[in-house]
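Sharing a chain and its predicted structure for anyone who wants a worked example. Both blocks are below, sequence first, tokens second.
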Amino acid sequence: MTQYQINLDSKLLHQLFLGSSQDAGVSALLESVLNQVLKAQASDQLAAEKYERTEERLGYRNGTYPHTLTTRVGNLTLYVPRFRDGKFSTELFSRYQRSEQALVLALMEMVINGVSTRKITQVTEELCGAEFSKSTVSDLCKQLDPIVTAWNHRPLKEEYPFVIVDALYTKVREDGRVRSRGVMIATGINLEGYREIIGMMIGDTESEASWGEFFTHLKHRGLHGVEIITSDSHGGLVKAIGQHLQGVTWQRCQTHFMRNILDATPKPLRSEVKAHVRSIFEAADPQTARTLLAQTVDLFQEKASKAMEILEAGFDDATAVLMLPPEYRKRTRTTNAVERLNAEIRRRERVIRIFPNRESVLRLLGALLMEQDEKWSMGKKYLEMTEFQEWRKKRKKGDSKVVRLG
């Protein structure tokens, strides 16, 4: 990934940290950084700095033209370089504005459908101009929707040994009523150790049928090579995993499981029970975990019988991850990674509160997930997978059956 050297003057920093408007300071900072990025991209594409004379030079600058970029911290004026041959290109605007466009479109739809508050109307007019129409919204949707749809239906060519699934709920206005709809999200870790968001779908409810449709969608796109799928213990979800991902090990999220156990534990005993259950989760191997389970049940059977009943019933599913080498357990035993992703989505989704339709949900959440997916692909590896691949080879030598999702 290209690296750029960014310079900030003292006046700008003073405005950022000591100015009366925090948004104005962030706006000035962002404007300065993005303009410097554009200049650096121009130098990269021409293979020469401004006024530099070299044999490797690929062309010449021809001034700049202003471009207004609408963001949550105000309108930024960016100066886009011109080349004499007209070949300058940048993905800066399309990448940055994708989620911004989706957010603004949701606000615009709310105004058009007559369901927005006065504040939403004011914000939308400030961002988009004093007037906008249904045709304006339609034209913008035609630009953004195909991008999100193509990403959510892209072929899944790589193997994803680890998959984490979860759902978040959002409110959607349908048939004159506000309804709660579940947005199912799947995150995978591929054989190179990078995380990817491999799919999303809106369901009427978090039922076996909805999750089954989602898993069918992933399989049709090529999902294969799954060893472990991690989720909470929602009944419909667990049944769908068993039906559509046969042969894949289900890991029950230990965070949710711990919460279930502690909810059934008398308050005076919760810290003690938590420590014992944690030792089970962190056991070196399944045999040690089972020994610790027996000791914990013996210790708390009389004073916390309901909690021990839950612990025993869910033990095998909550400790399935112990079959993996130790370095792969921590990041596959819970849905915490997806929970953090959901929190980031909530931060933006909270602006809308009630979506005007399902398409608006897919547009905004899809754009946000696309941007996160791009960040992950350009960042550090989430896991080093060399030892895992060795472990899997040894495992398959003892079992000629290779798991495939039909």
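Comments welcome. The chain has a mean pLDDT of 83.
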